[in-house]
Amino acid sequence: QKEVEQNSGPLSVPEGAIASLNCTYSDRGSQSFFWYRQYSGKSPELIMFIYSNGDKEDGRFTAQLNKASQYVSLLIRDSQPSDSATYLCAVVWRSGGYQKVTFGIGTKLQVIP
Amino acid sequence: DTGVSQDPRHKITKRGQNVTFRCDPISEHNRLYWYRQTLGQGPEFLTYFQNEAQLEKSRLLSDRFSAERPKGSFSTLEIQRTEQGDSAMYLCASSSGTRILYEQYFGPGTRLTVT
């Protein structure tokens, strides 16, 4: 089983600040990377995905991928209290001809008004 | 509503009983996944269907667990002889084979409590 590591947090940031969430993974051949947001008691909601090294921006969210260092991060600009949730990193890798996915444990983000 | 739906949303059962959950994926999605999530953990992969074929099954899935997707549309997950350790949120997700793989969309989940 491939490893996906996330700091469980909580990560506390003041409203309006940039929240930086990090994820490292063990399989160098991993192909695609996803960030999900999960509110307490709810199911995960897809925020962003990234496949290529570099940055990908979508509104207040930026995903960053560095395959050489095997990490992927999510930046949330102008953090809002409504961003308070657990952020799950998911990594796709290939095994036995199939693509598989491993989720991290998630980082809990608290945005303080 | 064209999202993934799951039924029931909550299930309380006594140890030793059998339970069955249903998942209806997004209509144009041919891939369907089952996950289990416990408190403080990320979703753990259980099994995966492409159309009606079950292509992958986790070693986490003991022989008490079985899943079907008979016509390539909805899927059921059955747990036989439930144990207290089966208490968790069971999540279903779907994705389209014509789009980027693993861009999965989750249903609301079924929360199982085994007493």
Report what the structure shows.
The complex is a heterodimer of chains A (113) and B (115). Chain A has strands at residues 4-5, 11-14, 19-25, 32-38, 45-50, 54-58, 61-66, 71-76, 85-95, 98-103, 107-112. By secondary structure, chain A is mainly β. In chain A, the strands form two sheets. In chain A, strands 2, 4, 5, 9, 10 and 11 form a six-stranded mixed sheet that branches. A five-stranded antiparallel sheet of chain A has the order 1-3-8-7-6, with no helix packed on it. In chain A, strand 7 (61-66) and strand 8 (71-76) form a beta hairpin. By secondary structure, chain B is mainly β. Helices cover 0% and strands 49% of the residues of chain B. Chain B has strands at residues 5-7, 10-13, 19-24, 31-37, 44-50, 53-57, 65-68, 75-79, 88-95, 105-106, 110-114. In chain B, the strands form two sheets. In chain B, strands 2, 4, 5, 6, 9, 10 and 11 form a seven-stranded mixed sheet that branches. A four-stranded antiparallel sheet of chain B has the order 1-3-8-7, with no helix packed on it. Chain B is globular and about 40 Å long. The interface between A and B is medium-sized, with 24 and 22 residues.
